[in-house]
Amino acid sequence: MKKAIQFGAGNIGRGFIGGLLSNAGYHVVFADVNEAILNAINNDKEYRILVKDVECFEQKITNISAVSSLSDEIIDEIQEAEIITTAVGPLVLKRIAPTIAKGIQARKNNGNKNYLNIIACENAVGATAILKEEVVKALNEDEIKYMEEYIGFPNCSVDRIVPPCTNENPLDVTVENFYEWNVEVSKIKGEIPQIDGMNLVDDLIAYVERKLFTLNTGHAITAYLGYINGYKTVDESIKDGEIAAIVKAAMQESGQGLVRKHGLDLDAHYKYIDKILNRFKNPYLNDDVKRVGREPLRKLSAKDRLINPLVTAQSYGISVDNLITGVGAALHYDNPDDAQSVELQETIKDLGVKEAVKKISQIEDKELLDNIEGAYQKLTIAQLA
Predict the structure, then answer these.
(1) Angle at Cα 285 formed by Cα 242 and Cα 231, nearest 5°?
(2) Rounded to an integer, what distance in angstroms lies between the CA atom of residue 43 and that of residue 53?
(3) pLDDT digits over 218-246, tens only?
(4) Is the distance from CB of 242 to CB of 322 less than 8 angstroms?
(5) pTM for the whole thing?
(6) Which of 21, 207, 241, 291 has its CA 20 to 30 A from that of 160?
(7) What is the three-class DSSP state of 184?
(8) DSSP character for 138?
(9) Are 7 and 118 in contact (CB under 8 A)?
(10) CA 262, 266, 267, 272 torsion: positive or negative?
(11) In DSSP terms, which residues pair with 118 in a beta bridge?
């Protein structure tokens, strides 16, 4: 039987890619460090994906097992796998890379000439390439040569809102109906996997940026503005007319930049934006603004969902006032339970807004820094009013 390994047995791992792999006939091995989840998977051997949208239905996911990603068992599983996927968060890729490298070493040492494809399904541009770089660091020259021949590392883009929800069975996952998984076909080694729901594409970067700088940009700005205004969830936040207007305009600013950069159809892209805004309004998801806004330093980094679309659009002479407002809102994210939020606020306190943004986001443009500071101050005044 075909075997797949899904690193990350959380809601996203179970509710999205893991489910698609199981439905495609793979035995899915979930690798994680959460012993309670691992034990539940091995005891129940099934769970449900609960689709909550305009139409509500459920899917039963079976043919699954679980191992600790810290155990020797995972190395044995990697030796037998045809595909490895991840849903661990971009910052955790470095931690699982040495384990994947050990699995590749074992495959080489045992003369395994079967192809293996590794796909990092994370909200980041080039996540699989990032993972590959980390894996290479743990391999010698002969092992790298083996890897280049038998191990594929296709990049991908993923899109599905999977909020943390409390279900009667803790393994069950609540998701929206919409999903999108685009995989770089040219980087796949061996036979193309037959997985319903996996869209094979040639020009992946356009899909990656279309999603990351539309959905994720709008999602983050909605969360930060909602947090400032005391809302708990994304759907509550987007019901606020002022927030909705800023978010839609920011997504259109980003979209105009994407259209110019990738030659997209503007009308089609604006329809894509409207579809995303309707997804934000889904009350079944109960999508917590703290979850969406977490790790603000990463979201404010040069290549991520706030700064990259801002700089891209500005480079084409496009007005970016609403994207700037989104950055100003992110700078106000003050959550003592989020280590990056604490660091962000300390950095602003120590350096001031402009120097903090310059340090975090690598922006050098003085006028842009002034405008971001102005947006930050305007939101400060609004909070005090």
Answers:
(1) 35
(2) 30
(3) 999 999 999 999 999 999 999 999 999 99
(4) no
(5) 0.83
(6) 241
(7) strand
(8) T
(9) no
(10) positive
(11) 84
